[in-house]
Design brief:
The chain has about 450 residues and is mainly beta. The chain has one domain: Porin (Beta Barrel), CATH 2.40.160.100. It is about 10% helix and about 45% strand. It is built from 5 helices and 19 strands. The protein has an 18-stranded antiparallel β-barrel. A hairpin with a 5-residue loop joins β1 and β2.
C-alpha cells in the first residue's frame, strides 16, 4: 500500500470543502426543487430586469493518485526520483457577468484565478526539483461583446468579439484546447485546470449553419517559448442530428525553431451519416469522426490524424457505446494545444498518455466501451495499443511500445458534485523496455472529487 503523503493545510481545506459539498449535495438538490428562487446560482451578485447578470463562480477539486512499478519499475532511473502516491488539489474562484444594451447587444467578461498544489512527486516528475508545490495565478481575464439582434438578417449574435486571457477550443481538442502549462512550479499536473492563453483576440462570426473564428493566441507555456498563433477556423453544421465538418489555416511564430514560421492546415468531421437517409434504424447510431493536421516550414514536414467509428445500442440495458479509433502522428508532428475533452481525448491512456508519451512519433489503436448502468453513472473500459512511428526517433530499436487498459467511472452525485475513479494497467513491449529500462507492469489508480457552482 503506498504511503499517504502529508498534505499542506490548503490541500486539507480543499478536501474538507469537497466532503462538505458531498454531505450537503442531496440537500441542495432538494432545495432547488422546492422553490423557483433557488434555481438561480447561489453565487449571484446582481441580476437586472433585462437578463443582465453578475455572479460568482467556484470550482474546487482534490485527487489522490496511487501506483505500483511506475515507469515499469524504473521511475528513479527516468525521473531522477521515486514516484509513488501523490495528491493534487485546486481552487478556482471567479466573477463573470453580462450586461445587455438597449439594442439587445451584450457586453460580457470574466476574471478568475487558480490556486493549485501538488504533494509528493507526480508520475511525470513534473515537480522535480520543487517537491511539494503551491501556486496561485490569474486564469481568465477577458472582456467581449456580442451583437445580439443588431444584425437580425444574419441571425442572433452574428458577431462576437473578445480579448484577454481566455481558452480557445475547436472540435474535440485535437489541436486547440489547452493554451497553458500545468505542473512544474505551477502544480496540479494531471488536473490541468490552467487552460487559458496568456493573451488572445477572438472574432467569432456565425450565420445559419456556418461559423468562422478569427483567432490570435499567445501561449502561457512554462518555460515561456513566446509561441504565438494566428489564423481562421471554419465550421459547417449539416444538421444537429447529422453533424458537420470543419477545419482551419494557421501560422505560428515561436522561439522553438520547428514552430517558428510553421503553417498548419486542419480538416475534421463528426458525422452520423445514416441519419440523413431513409435507412434501417439499425444503421442510424453509427458515428464516424476524423481529423487531419498538416504542418510545414523550412525545418518541418509533419502530420497527425485519426479516424474513429462508434455505435450506440440505445434500446439495450445500460445503453452501451462501442468505439474504435486509430490515430497516427509522424515523428516530427507538433501536437500544439491539444487537451482533455473527455476520457481518451486527447491524453491517450491514463498512464502513458498522461505521463510518458505525447501525440508525436506515435501510432495508437483504441477500443472503448461506455456503459451507463444508471443515469448518474458512466463507466468506460479502454484498451490501447501503442506503437512508435519511428523507433529510432526515440532512441530504441523496437516500435512495439506497450499495451494499456483503463477503467474509468464517473458518478454525478448532484448538479454540483462529481466523483470519479480510475484504474489502469500497462504491460510494456520491447520499445517501452528499451526506452525506460524497466520491465515490470505498471499499475495505477486515482480517486477524484470536484464541486462547482
Amino acid at each position: 500500500m503506498p504511503r499517504l503523503p502529508v498534505r499542506t493545510p490548503v490541500s486539507a481545506a480543499i478536501a474538507f470543502v469537497l466532503f462538505g459539498a458531498l454531505a450537503a449535495g442531496p440537500a441542495l438538490a432538494e432545495d432547488a426543487e422546492a422553490t423557483e428562487e433557488t434555481e438561480k446560482s447561489p453565487l449571484t451578485i446582481w441580476e437586472g430586469d433585462n437578463g443582465s447578470l453578475l455572479k460568482g463562480t467556484f470550482k474546487a477539486a482534490a485527487a489522490y493518485f496511487m501506483q505500483d512499478n511506475a515507469w515499469f519499475g524504473n521511475a528513479k532511473g527516468n525521473l531522477g526520483a521515486r514516484s509513488g502516491s501523490w495528491w493534487e488539489t485546486y481552487i478556482h474562484p471567479g466573477i463573470e457577468g453580462s450586461y445587455f444594451l438597449e439594442n439587445s447587444s451584450e457586453l460580457y467578461g470574466r476574471v478568475s484565478a487558480v490556486f493549485a498544489s501538488t504533494n509528493e512527486i507526480d508520475a511525470a516528475g513534473s515537480n522535480i526539483p520543487w517537491g511539494n508545490v503551491t501556486s496561485t495565478r490569474f486564469e481568465d481575464a477577458y472582456a467581449g461583446w456580442r451583437s445580439g439582434d443588431l444584425f437580425s438578417s444574419l441571425g442572433k449574435d452574428f458577431l462576437d468579439v473578445s480579448v484577454g486571457r481566455q481558452q480557445y477550443v475547436a472540435g474535440n481538442g485535437f489541436l486547440f484546447f489547452n493554451q497553458s502549462s500545468n505542473g512544474q512550479n505551477r502544480g496540479a499536473f494531471w488536473m490541468g485546470e490552467r487552460q487559458a492563453a496568456k493573451f488572445s483576440g477572438i472574432v467569432k462570426l456565425k450565420t445559419d449553419n456556418w461559423k468562422a473564428d478569427l483567432i490570435y493566441l499567445e501561449a502561457d507555456d512554462n518555460p515561456n517559448t513566446d509561441t504565438r498563433l494566428g489564423g481562421i477556423t471554419l465550421d459547417y453544421t449539416i444538421s444537429e442530428a447529422v453533424g458537420g465538418i470543419g477545419g482551419g489555416i494557421y501560422t505560428l511564430a515561436s522561439d522553438i525553431e520547428t514552430r517558428d514560421s510553421m503553417n498548419v492546415f486542419d480538416i475534421r468531421f463528426s458525422l452520423l451519416p445514416f441519419e440523413a437517409f431513409d435507412v434501417s434504424d439499425v444503421l442510424k447510431p453509427v458515428k464516424f469522426e476524423g481529423e487531419y493536421v498538416y504542418e510545414d516550414n523550412d525545418d518541418l514536414d509533419a502530420s497527425g490524424w485519426y479516424l474513429s467509428a462508434g455505435y450506440q445500442w440505445a434500446d439495450v440495458p445500460w445503453t452501451p457505446t462501442l468505439t474504435y479509433r486509430y490515430a497516427s502522428f509522424s515523428e516530427d508532428y507538433d501536437p500544439l494545444f491539444y487537451g482533455f475533452n473527455d476520457w481518451g481525448y486527447w491524453y491517450q491512456g491514463e498512464v502513458l498518455g498522461e505521463y510518458v508519451l505525447v501525440n508525436s512519433n506515435l501510432k495508437s489503436h483504441m477500443v472503448k466501451l461506455n456503459v451507463k448502468p444508471v443515469e448518474s453513472v458512466s463507466a468506460n473500459l479502454f484498451y490501447f495499443k501503442f506503437d512508435l512511428d519511428d523507433a529510432g526517433g526515440l532512441g530504441v530499436q523496437s516500435a512495439d511500445f506497450a499495451d494499456e487498459w483503463n477503467l474509468t467511472v464517473d458518478w454525478t452525485v448532484t448538479d454540483h458534485v462529481i466523483l470519479s475513479a480510475v484504474a489502469a494497467y500497462v504491460d510494456p513491449d520491447e520499445g517501452a523496455r528499451q526506452y525506460t529500462g524497466g520491465d515490470d507492469s505498471w499499475s495505477y489508480g486515482m480517486l477524484y472529487a470536484s464541486v462547482s457552482f
